[in-house]
Design a protein that fits this description.
Layout (H helix, E strand, L loop, with lengths): L1 H7 L4 H13 L8 H10 L17 H10 L5 H27 L2 H13 L1 H6 L6 H21 L5 H15 L5 H15 L4 H15 L3 H17 L3 H5 L3 H14 L8 H23 L8 H20 L15 H17 L1 H12 L2 H13 L2 H17 L8 H11 L4 E5 L6 H6 L6 E3 L8 H7 L8 E5 L3 H4 L4 H8 L2 E9 L3 E8 H5 L1
Parallel strand pairs: 1-2, 1-3
Antiparallel strand pairs: 3-5, 4-5
Helix pairs in contact: 2-5, 2-6, 3-4, 4-5, 5-6, 5-8, 5-17, 6-17, 8-9, 9-11, 10-11, 10-16, 15-17, 15-19, 16-17, 18-19, 23-25
Length: 517
């Protein structure tokens, strides 16, 4: 096994990138779901409107990238290529290079391979949202620092300008990017203080480049707070309970897209992994070497822990932490785990002899070795493979298929039908995939008001033989099912129900004579 791993470690970085591209290609043509369709609709507006994104709590960089890509084609795969796939591949390449420069080719290979097969990273490398983009800039900025401090041994003016540009782009990709900057500032102050002046200059340049966007950010913040007040329950949809967010993030890094439930296998897997990681750290510590104090290890530790903990603490004021929003920590997670394991493996024989001599029980040496090998990278590899196969094969783990539900409606009710949404307008994916084939009625607000107002909004549906009502988000927007009451008042009765994973049910209402027929 060691010989095989040694041979694989000699593969160049681009081979991992090509492998990752192969894995990510198939899902690029999948249907847009709600957030992606909203992104696509906003990005295909005129250029003059691309900065008018008050209702989308994200910086504008992805909007601009997708806007220019859409001038060539509006195909899902093409837009995802520029907004998600290429950033994802850049992240994998930078991960390899960082691990290689800090540790070894073996650590580089395993870390980047784990990232390549991570269903969590695959999913967001195929999603037209800014999570993959921000991860690319975060990883690239760390690579610039690694190149400057560990290869060139100095932070030059060129390094300063490249870092400033990359950081500015990162700030324009996600509002959580300042936590990355904080972690980098801590590392520079702690271990590279001779470069602190140049680093502060480049950081200041990046901050100044972001200043023009601050008024728009404040407007987005205001709109977001207003949405939470006007739509009770929305915060539970877009954020995670504070005490749950931290373990869920680490769980998603391990289990990917799989639904994390507190079952016995899940709990045992977590316990074994943590025990194995603790055993690995203990073995390294027992040898009394300087690994834990090395600049290489401290850099990875800063990258992983400081953004995660600082954003989590910030979330007590404004909930921001979700696993997908800190995707830029996933490369650090894999490098952290395997660099520790690789360090323990280098000392394997001498360490195990010392442990055995202390406890004077040969079986304890075997137990420690099994914990070391079986509960770290092998668990990650096994979970990654299982999760990736589940994502590819099981629609439950895939995106909402609005394209398919639209086609299904076209086949079942090609004429004399209207569509109703319990929202202020038709949902974004319906607008993206429907070319005006169906008249659309909406309640006109985020939550249904009085029954009389709903009746008035839907009065003109009486001109149609069939009325199709989407249950999507209705537990939030129409919990009392006022739409059904309005349609029943107009003489409609429910004829059939069909649905799609993630989207839920579509309820078909028809006039009484059509139901009976």
């Amino acid at each position: 096994m060691k010989k095989l791993l040694s041979r694989l470690s000699q593969l160049p970085a681009w081979s991992i990138v090509v492998f990752a591209l192969f894995i990510r290609t198939a899902g690029l043509w999948d249907s847009f779901w709600l957030d992606e369709a909203a992104q696509a609709l906003e990005s295909t507006r005129p250029l003059s409107q691309q900065l008018q994104i008050a209702e989308d709590f994200q910086p504008p960089l992805l909007h601009l990238i997708v806007h220019f890509a859409a001038q060539v084609s509006q195909n899902e795969a093409w837009l995802r290529l520029w907004g998600a796939l290429l950033p994802g591949l850049i992240t994998i390449y930078c991960t390899y290079k960082i691990a290689e420069k800090l540790f070894s080719k073996q650590v580089a290979f395993i870390s980047s391979f784990l990232l390549a097969v991570s269903s969590f990273h695959v999913f967001y490398s195929q999603e037209l949202r800014p999570y993959s983009l921000s991860a690319a800039f975060a990883t690239l900025s760390w690579l610039l620092l690694v190149q400057a401090f560990f290869v060139n041994k100095k932070f030059t003016a060129k390094d300063s300008m490249l870092y400033a540009l990359t950081t500015a782009l990162g700030l324009y990709s996600t509002y959580l990017y300042p936590f990355v900057v904080i972690s980098q500032a801590v590392y520079v102050f702690w271990k590279e203080r001779q470069a602190l002046k140049g680093y502060l200059v480049s950081g200041s340049i990046a901050a100044l480049l972001f200043v023009p966007w601050i008024p728009s950010f404040l407007e987005q913040l205001s709109v977001g707070q207003a949405l939470r007040k006007s739509l009770p329950g929305w915060e539970a949809v877009v954020s995670i309970p504070q005490l749950k967010s931290l373990p869920l993030t680490l769980g998603k890094f391990m289990f990917g897209v799989l639904n994390i439930e507190m079952t016995v296998p899940f709990i045992l897997t977590i316990i074994i992994f943590l025990l194995g990681l603790a055993a690995t750290a203990w073995l390294v510590w027992t040898n009394r070497n300087k690994f834990f104090y090395s600049k290489q290890f401290i850099l990875i530790l800063c990258w992983l822990s400081i953004p995660l903990l600082s954003s989590w603490l910030f979330s007590f004021a404004i909930p921001v932490v979700q696993p997908k929003r800190v995707l830029y920590l996933l490369p650090a997670f894999y490098i952290f785990v395997y660099s520790l394991l690789a360090q323990a493996q280098e000392q394997d024989s001498s360490l195990l002899q010392r442990v055995t001599s202390k406890v004077r029980q040969q079986q304890n040496s075997t137990i420690v070795k099994l914990m070391l090998v079986a509960s770290t990278v092998w668990i990650l590899l096994g979970l990654s493979g299982w999760s990736l196969i589940s994502y590819i094969q099981n629609p439950v783990y895939q995106r909402e298929n609005w394209r398919a539900i639209h086609q299904q409606i076209l086949e079942r009710y090609p004429t004399k039908a209207a569509v109703v949404f319990a929202f202020d307008a038709a949902f974004a994916p319906w607008r993206w995939y429907d070319d005006g084939s169906y008249p659309v009625f909406a309640t006109g607000s985020l939550t249904t008001a009085t029954q009389g107002e709903v009746d008035e909004k839907l009065k003109k549906t009486s001109d149609y033989q069939y009325v199709l009502v989407f249950d999507y988000l209705r537990d939030l927007t129409d919990p009392n099912r006022k739409i059904e009451t309005a349609l029943e008042n107009l003489g409609y009765s429910e004829k059939e129900v069909f649905g799609m994973p993630g989207i839920g049910f579509v309820r078909v209402f028809a006039r009484q004579e059509d139901v009976l027929s």
